[in-house]
C-alpha cells in the first residue's frame, strides 16, 4: 500500500514539474494552447455548417457532436499533457533510451510517459471543456458522468498508444505505424457513431479503438447509466492492464542503447 | 533575362526538383501514410454523405453523393500533396545554416521551392490514383459527367504550386519570428474553412461564402474540387485565372519578403 502511495506521489511530482516546465516558456505555452483551441473550433465549424443544412445525421444532432468533440478533445488533451511521453515511446525503445528510467526505483512506464508533456494539450482540454459546457454536460447532475467519460477516453487513448508503441520491442519501424493508428483513432472518434457499421465497427473497438475513446464515453455523457459507466470503467481498466502487460513483457527483451547522454 | 539564361536556370532548378522527388520516393512509409490518410478521410465522408443523402436528393444542384465524394478526393489530393516547406526554411534559420546556403551560386529560395515542387509532383502522382481509386470504390463509380475531372487535374496541380508558394512565404517569416508553426496553423485553418476542404462553398451561408471568395483559398481547393460536379470549362477558366492572379500576387510578396529577409540577415548576422 505504501508503495502505491509512493508511486502516486511520484506521478504527482512529475505532473507538477511538467506544468512548471511548460509555463517556463510562457509565450510559447499560450501560443500553442490558444492555437490548438482555435484549431478545434475551426474543425468543429465544419460540423456546424453541415448541421445548418442537414439538421440530423443518423439520429445525431449538433449538440451530440458537440458532446463527442468535447469528450475527445478533453480526453486527448489530458492524455498528451499527463502522458506526453507516449508519442515517442517507440523511438525511445528502438534507440535504447529507456536506460535512464531503468536505473530509477520507480515504474519505468510511468516514468517514461509522465516525463514529457505537450503544451498544446492544454488548449485541447480548454476547448473540450468549453464544448462540454455548451452541450450542458458540466451541470452538477452530469459532472460525475462527464468526468468518468473524459478520464476513460484519456486512459484508452494513452493505453492503446503504449500498446502499439511497445511493439517496437519486437518489430523494427513500428513508430510510424503506431503514430498512424493513433491519428486514425483520433480522426474516427470525432465522427458520429451511426456512420460506421459492420466490419468497420469491429475495427473501431479493437485495432483503432475510437469506440472507446469517443463513442462510448460520449454516450455515457449523453445518456448516463450504470451500465455505460461500468462499460467505460471496464474498457479503461482492460486497455490499461493490457498495455502494461505488453510493455512489461517487452521490457524483458529490451537491450540498452549504451549511449551516454543527458536526460531531457 | 536572355533565353539561354532562362533555359540554364530551368535545367538547374529542374534537376534540383528531380533529386528531391527521388528522395521523397525513397521515403515510402511517409508516402504510404499520406495515401492511407487520404483513403480514410474519403471513406469517412463517403459514410457522411451516404447517411445524409442516401439515394435521395442532391445536396446542391448538380451534386449528389457521388459528386461530393469525388469533390473531397480532389481537394484532399491538392492539399495532402504539399510538403511542409516552411519547416525546412525554419530549420535553416534556426541552425544558422542559412548563412552558408546563401553564398551558393543558386538562389536559396529558388532551391527550396524547386525541392518542394519536386516532392509535390511525386505526391500528386502517387496520391492522385490513390484518391481516384478510393473515390471510385466509395462512390460506386465516376461522377455523372466525369469529363470535369480532366479539368481538375491541371487545376489541382496549379493549386498545389500556389500552396507551395504560400508555405515558402510562411517559412520566410522565420527570419522575424523563428517559430513559424503558429503562422502555418492560421494559414492551414483558413484553407480548411474558407477553401472548402471538406464541404463545397455552395453549402456555406451567403456571408461566409462571400468572405471566402475574397481570399485565395477557394481557388486552391473549391475551384479544382467543383470540377467533380460536371464539365464546366468557363468555371475552370475562372479558377485558372484566379490561380494565376493569386500566384503572381504571392510571387511578388515572396520576392519582397526574400529581399527583406536578406537585409535582416545582413544587419543581424547569420
Structural summary, described in words:
- Chain A is an all-alpha fold and 264 residues long.
- In chain A, 72% of the residues lie in helices and 0% in strands.
- Chain A has helices at 2-24, 26-53, 62-82, 89-94, 99-102, 108-114, 120-134, 143-166, 174-189, 198-203, 210-222, 226-253.
- The longest helix of chain A is centred in the first third of the chain and has 28 residues, at 26-53.
- Helix content of chain B is 78%, strand content 0%.
- In chain B, helix 2 (28-53) packs across helix 6 (108-139) and helix 3 (65-80) runs parallel beside helix 7.
- The longest helix of chain B is centred in the last third of the chain and has 36 residues, at 233-268.
- Chain B is globular, with a radius of gyration of 20 Å.
- At the A-B interface, helix 2 and helix 9 of A face helix 2 and helix 9 of B.
Amino acid at each position: 500500500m505504501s508503495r502505491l502511495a509512493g508511486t502516486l506521489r511520484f506521478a504527482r511530482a512529475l505532473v507538477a514539474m511538467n506544468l512548471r516546465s511548460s509555463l517556463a516558456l510562457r509565450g510559447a505555452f499560450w501560443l500553442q494552447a490558444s492555437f490548438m483551441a482555435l484549431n478545434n473550433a475551426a474543425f468543429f465549424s465544419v460540423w456546424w455548417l453541415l448541421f445548418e443544412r442537414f439538421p440530423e445525421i443518423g439520429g445525431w444532432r449538433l449538440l451530440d457532436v458537440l458532446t463527442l468533440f468535447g469528450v475527445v478533445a478533453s480526453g486527448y488533451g489530458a492524455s498528451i499533457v499527463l502522458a506526453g511521453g507516449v508519442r515517442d515511446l517507440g523511438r525511445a525503445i528502438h534507440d535504447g533510451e529507456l536506460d535512464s528510467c531503468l536505473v530509477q526505483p520507480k515504474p519505468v512506464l510511468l516514468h517514461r510517459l509522465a516525463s514529457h508533456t505537450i503544451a498544446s494539450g492544454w488548449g485541447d482540454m480548454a476547448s473540450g471543456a468549453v464544448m462540454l459546457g455548451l452541450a450542458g454536460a458540466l451541470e452538477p447532475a452530469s459532472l460525475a458522468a462527464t468526468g468518468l467519460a473524459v478520464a476513460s477516453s484519456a486512459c484508452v487513448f494513452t493505453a492503446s498508444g503504449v500498446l502499439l508503441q511497445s511493439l517496437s520491442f519486437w518489430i523494427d519501424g513500428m513508430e510510424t505505424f503506431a503514430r498512424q493508428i493513433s491519428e486514425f483513432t483520433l480522426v474516427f472518434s470525432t465522427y458520429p457513431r451511426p456512420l460506421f457499421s459492420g466490419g468497420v465497427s469491429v475495427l473501431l473497438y479493437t485495432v483503432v479503438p475510437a469506440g472507446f475513446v469517443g463513442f462510448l464515453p460520449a454516450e455515457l455523457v449523453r445518456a448516463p447509466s450504470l451500465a455505460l459507466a461500468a462499460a467505460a470503467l471496464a474498457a479503461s481498466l482492460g486497455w490499461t492492464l493490457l498495455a502494461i502487460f505488453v510493455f512489461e513483457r517487452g521490457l524483458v527483451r529490451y537491450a540498452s542503447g549504451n549511449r551516454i547522454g543527458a536526460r531531457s | 533575362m536572355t533565353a539561354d539564361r532562362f533555359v540554364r536556370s530551368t535545367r538547374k532548378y529542374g534537376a534540383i526538383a528531380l533529386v528531391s522527388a527521388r528522395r521523397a520516393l525513397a521515403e515510402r512509409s511517409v508516402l504510404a501514410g499520406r495515401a492511407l490518410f487520404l483513403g480514410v478521410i474519403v471513406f469517412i465522408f463517403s459514410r457522411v454523405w451516404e447517411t445524409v443523402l442516401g439515394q435521395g436528393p442532391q445536396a446542391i444542384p448538380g451534386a449528389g453523393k457521388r459528386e461530393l465524394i469525388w469533390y473531397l478526393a480532389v481537394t484532399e489530393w491538392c492539399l495532402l500533396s504539399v510538403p511542409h516547406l516552411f519547416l525546412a526554411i525554419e530549420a535553416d534559420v534556426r541552425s544558422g545554416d542559412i548563412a552558408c546556403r546563401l553564398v551558393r551560386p543558386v538562389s536559396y529560395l529558388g532551391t527550396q521551392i524547386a525541392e518542394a515542387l519536386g516532392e509535390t509532383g511525386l505526391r500528386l502522382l502517387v496520391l492522385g490514383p490513390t484518391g481516384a481509386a478510393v473515390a471510385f470504390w466509395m462512390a460506386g463509380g465516376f461522377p455523372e459527367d466525369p469529363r470535369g475531372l480532366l479539368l481538375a487535374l491541371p487545376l489541382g496541380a496549379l493549386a498545389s504550386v500556389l500552396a507551395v508558394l504560400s508555405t515558402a512565404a510562411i517559412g520566410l517569416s522565420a527570419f522575424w519570428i523563428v517559430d513559424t508553426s503558429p503562422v502555418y496553423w492560421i494559414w492551414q485553418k483558413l484553407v480548411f474553412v474558407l477553401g472548402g476542404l471538406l464541404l463545397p462553398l455552395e453549402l456555406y451561408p451567403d456571408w461566409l461564402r462571400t468572405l471566402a471568395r475574397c481570399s485565395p483559398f477557394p481557388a486552391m481547393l473549391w475551384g479544382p474540387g467543383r470540377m467533380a460536379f460536371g464539365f464546366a470549362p468557363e468555371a475552370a477558366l475562372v479558377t485558372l485565372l484566379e490561380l494565376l492572379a493569386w500566384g503572381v500576387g504571392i510571387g511578388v510578396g515572396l520576392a519582397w519578403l526574400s529581399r527583406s529577409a536578406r537585409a535582416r540577415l545582413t544587419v543581424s548576422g547569420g
